[in-house]
Amino acid sequence: MTAVLREHAEQQFAEELQELARADKRQRPPNWKLSPWAVFLYLMGGRLDNGFTLTPKYTGQARVVEIAIATLATDRALLLLGVPGTAKTWVSEHLSAAISGDSTLVVQGTAGTSEESIRYGWNYARLLAEGPSADALVPSPVKRAMQDGKIARVEELTRIPSDVQDALITILSEKSLPIPELNSEVQARKGFNIIATANDRDRGVNELSSALKRRFNTVVLPLPETLEEEVEIVGRRVEQIGRALELPAEAPALEEIRRVVTLFRELRAGLTLDGKTKLKSPSGTLSTAEAISVINNGLALAAHFGDGRLRAQDLASSVVGAIIRDPVQDGVVWREYLETVVKERDGWKDLYRACREL
Amino acid sequence: MSVHILGIRHHGPGSARSVRAALEELQPDAILVEGPPDADEQLALAAHAQMRPPVALLIYLPDEPQRAVYYPFAEFSPEWQAIRYGLARRIPVRFIDLPQSQQYALPRQITDADEIIHDDATPAVRRDPLRWVGEAAGYSDGELWWEHMIEQRRDGTELFRAIMELMTALREEATHASKSSETTNAREDSETTTANDASEATETHESSEATNVGEPSDVTKTREASEATEVGESSETTKLNEASIESEASEPSEVMKPRESVHDALEALREAHMRKSIRAAEREGFERIAVVCGAWHAPALERMPPASEDAALLKGLPKVKVHATWVAWTMGRLTYRSGYGAGVESPEYYQHLWSAPDNVNAQWMIRAARLLREQDLDASSASVIEAARLADALAAMRGRPVAGLPELGDAARAVFCSGDDAPMRLINEKLIVGERMGEVPEETPLLPLQQDLRREQKRLRLPPEASERVLDLDLRKANDLERSRLLHRLRLLGVGWGAPERASGKGTFREVWRLRWQPEFALAIIEANIWGNTVITAADAHARHLSAQTEELPALTALVERALLADLPEAINDIMQRLESVAALSGDIPHAMDALPPLANVMRYGNVRQTGAGVVRGVIDGLVTRICIGLPNACSSLNDEAAEAMYARLSAVHGAITLLQSAEHADAWHAVLRRLPEQKNLHGLIAGRCCRLLLDEGLTDAETTGRSMNLALSTGVEPAQASAWAEGFLRGSGLVLLHNEELWRILDAWIASLKPEAFTQLLPLLRRTFSTFTAPERRRIGEHARRATDGNSPASARSSTPGVGVATERARRVLPLAAQLLGLSYPPLTTQEARDE
Fold first, then answer.
1. Peptide bond preceding B54: is omega within 30 degrees of 0, i.e. cis?
2. B108: Cβ–Cβ under 8 A, 6 or more apart, which residues?
3. What is the pLDDT of residue A38?
4. Helix, strand or coil for residue B2?
């Protein structure tokens, strides 16, 4: 047991990666630790011939992971797109852990990310003392990945200002990083590639230039496909978080979780689950992560102000808060949903009343 | 003398290529094709210059055109290639399947059973024989396996020998499986779960559309196809079939045999007939006979049992009369989606496989890129290269020899579309399904829809006449009602034979039409045949098609009315569903408000036409709820013009809700009416109307209304806003002023308080409002005004006198001249008076 709060993927699943590498007899692209087949198996889980079991890291469509891996194998950069809470970062971390054995070469994109964090910076003390030299350079994670032939990750690519984003173009098309100050360059070794993630809800923040976009293959990570899948994910996370927060409340009934997930799914899809009634969708994302926080919120209310059991009243306020982001448009959407769907549904009367009372 | 059996998959481009190559090699002197011999006479038309696939052979019963079978052909159909090959070289080409004239004559359950064999009781091998083979080879899906092994190959006759062996083995397995279907099911389950690749196992789905390799679902045939002719609807066919099955099952005399054995019986008959036809061709002395049939049948035709056995089977089969003709077909209708199970998921892709000489995948990517560029989407040549590379890498990862459609699609989505679905839908529409439509020559025999119309015209004694005549229908009479429906249906199909005149007099019982038959209608009918074989089914399918195309509420409600008039209950159901979903998504409250009154009418008065109005209720419920929720937003910040339109809608919706007589709707509506005037920025017209409606309904008392009026007309309010309020409140009827002294007083006080310039400005508006009252009302208001001024308020009476009286001083000045003109003497002015002047 280590003292760190959270281990990197390659540390946490070191044994799995080791077993896989031993069992993997297929051809590996240059500088890859595993073959594409083994990477796939690592992400989706499965059983090796020797009986060793791999846990699934990503529960979703196999297709998505296949395209992602095939993209990296063709030395095209990979852009993972999806609404918040669809495991983009998670997938990118595990992909780089499996392919390069190193998931730590990360650039976190923010509005303040500068070119230095993508290319290189200077150690100014040395620069002043010794003049420009390779030793005075402070390499960025991308530069290090190029030198070592590893995967670099760029988180939240669209939050990075456009001019800084475009620093990636040369790196991606010519696979080299010029250093004009030293009149030299870094040429990427085989195995180098970039996995970027971006949030497609606020894609407009800093839309990629088409020159950059062209260098990425885009894979959209979908929201959980079925109700059962999502209920399962929400239930598991709620339990984990509840334990961490040490809430003195009973674990929520599966029924309540199902209700919240149903509600979220229906509004998200703009369609009732039976497929009979169309609905308007609110402006929020209503991701799985939000469903989890709604239930946790309700649980906290129930624990501290209620009788310790999650009831419709406890849920109502956080549900409404999650859905109504724009008071005018979303208000209409929510009221319509309440009156046309919630009101009529069997066993939802308490929720209807609780929401009406707000 | 030799017989060569070419086992194919219907609509397989690879099969077509192989057939073509095999024929070139064999140089046969007769070609036999699995198909309906009923259509032998029409076969020659296939070589006609104007014939452009996709087309379909249509076999139908002249008396019952809704029972029809379509045999579609695309350019990449092996049968089509075989037929064209034969016709081009003047080699006899014949169809050898069991004639439809005999299949129709079989007891109905046998033929119906043909449709629905894919239930769980059918053993897996029978249901989807290729899946077995595919799974054995490590594929998730038999289709895919066939695709890779057969369709993507380009070599000749050797292939057919291999197919023959494969099918022979499969048929043996199937016979075995039929005997012990339970064990087979168990085996199949274990097969699925132990499939070594976990991900593939999850993808394995119970494909209800069986393979195209002939049996078990001989995909070129669909019965009851007229019900299936609507585009984009798949549920209908099965529904109807189930219905017919149920109705038969309820008849006590006909005990249902297990469907599977019924199906087997039909298959045996069909294969017997094929063998019989082959023998006949042999007897005629053809030397090299090529037989093109579904792969499943191939072994049965290879190993010939004694001729007498087949003869015994086929002996004494009853026969009915059938007609055959060609109809134009579409790519879309070759897919699963269209309800007609031709069973090709991707006809346009197959067309591409057929017509692209080599480098199939790169060419497909180029086509995709060009398509996107046409739509102003980025797709550079570099992207094409990357997409093609990704497709290959994916194929390698998935362990496939060549990239197929799934890989191409995935790659196109990742590279061209940035993961976006919208451009992918475009690619799917144009490059995977396709929009190609076939053509048939003019010489093609009369279509069933034309015949059906003729029959109807005769039955209803409504002959087509080129001269115009007026037809007055009384809808209470059965015959007239039917005539009206026929005319309405034809109008739906775009045949404007009758133009409805505005019916006057007896209201909804009477309908006046102006009839005139124009020669162009014949063409319109031929075009409409694509929708169905009878007027009613065609109108039904077309109405549904229209509803699927329509995005706007008002257009949909109009369509509902048309469908109701044409009495198309099935279509109405569909349109209603569509209406519901469009209403749910539309934020356009005015549209919803426009839609409500006609629907309310339908619900209330629909029964006159004996149309069930029950379906309408659900839609109305949704609309009322949405209107009640959305109205406050829709009413904010309206200008005069918009307020005027909203005023009309408000009144119409109010009328509709009164008509519906539903307490629930009325409550919701009244709550909104009550809430609405409190809203800020509300146009006076609307606010005034709300108050008036509430007052008229007796939901507020005069006192409250008085308070509202006082508030709206108080001095702090802009005069324009106040007068709009007054207009909204009063328009239509002023009686309320006569009955309620308090309201009268408030209005009066407001007008009196107006400043002169404001008064001049508002006068036209007030005048407009008062002009909407009836003459007696106006008179009584005038009288009331005079009485009020005479009696109740002397102060105002005095002030009004000068206006009413004559200006004596000025009039007097005219008098002398008038007197002079008339030659009269006028009392002369006194000097004193003259000085005053």
1. yes
2. B244, B248
3. 92
4. strand
Q: Which residues of A touch B410 (CB under 8 A)?
A: 63, 66-67
**Rounded Cα–Cα distance for residues A168 and B194 (Å):** 46
Using alpha carbons only, give the angle B245, B249, B255 rounded to the nearest 5 degrees.
Answer: 125
Q: What is the mean pLDDT of residues B131-157?
A: 67
pTM assigned to the model:
0.64
Is the pLDDT confidence value at B340 over 50? no
Q: Name, in order, each residue with C-beta under 8 angstroms of A163's C-beta and a sequence gap of 6 or more.
A: A115
What whole-number distance in Å separates Cα of residue B471 and Cα of residue A274?
48
Report chain A residues whose CB lies below 8 A from the CB of B419.
Answer: 79, 81, 200, 218-220
The two three-digit tokens of residue B408, written as one number: 């191409």
Q: Which residues contact A77 (CB under 8 A, 6 or more apart)?
A: A71, A168, A172, A193, A194, A195, A196, A215, A216, A217
Question: Per 3-state DSSP, what percentage of chain B is helix, strand, and coil (rounded to 5)?
Answer: 65, 10, 30
Interface check B584 vs A, CB under 8 A: yes
Q: What is the ipTM of this complex?
A: 0.77
Main-chain dihedrals φ then ψ at residue B493, nearest 5 degrees: -85, 5
What separation in angstroms does the CA of B668 have from each of A51, A181, A277, B629, B672? 65, 74, 21, 9, 6
pLDDT at B250 over 70: no
What's the one-letter identity of residue A355? C
Which residues are CB-neighbours of B747 under 8 A, at least 6 positions away?
Answer: B709, B713, B726, B737
Q: Report pLDDT digits (tens) over B536-551.
A: 888 888 888 888 888 8
CA dihedral B539, B543, B546, B551 (to 10 degrees): 170
As a whole number of angstroms, the distance between CA B805 and CA B826 comes to 23
**3-class secondary structure for B457-508?**
HHHCCCCCCCCCEEEEEECCCHHHHHHHHHHHHHHHCCCCCEEEECCCCCHH
**Side-chain half-sphere of A308: how many Cα atoms within 13 Å?**
5
The verdict on A229 touching B (C-beta cutoff 8 Å) is no
The closest of A42, A161, A155 to A105, measured between CA atoms, is A155
Q: Which residue has the higher pLDDT, A350 or A193?
A: A193
Structure tokens at A279: 């609905």
For B459-516, how does the pLDDT look when each residue is reduced to its tens digit (9 = 90+)? 888 887 777 788 888 888 888 888 888 888 888 888 888 888 765 444 567 788 888 8
**How far is B410 from B663, CA to CA, in rounded Å?**
54
> Residue B237 corresponds to which tokens in the numbers above?
């066919």
Distance from CA of A197 to the nearest CA of B (A): 13
Closest C-alpha to B322, from B118, B530, B125, B65: B65
φ/ψ of residue B813, rounded to 5: -65, -25
Chain B: closest CA distance from residue A304 (Å):
35
Taking one residue from A and the other from B, the number of pairs with CB-CB distance under 8 angstroms is 96
Collapsing DSSP to helix, strand or coil, B61 comes out as strand
Q: How far is CA B452 from the centre of its chain?
A: 22
CA distances from B479 to A302, A308, B267, B475 (A): 69, 71, 45, 8
Q: Which of A71, A218, A278 sits opposite B585 (nearest CB)?
A: A278
Backbone angles phi, psi at B390, to 5 degrees: -60, -40
Omega within 30 of 0 (cis) for the link into B216: yes
Cα B6 to its chain centre, rounded Å, is 40
Put simply, whether A289 touches B (Cβ < 8 Å) is: no
The pLDDT confidence band at residue B688, using thresholds 50, 70 and 90, is confident
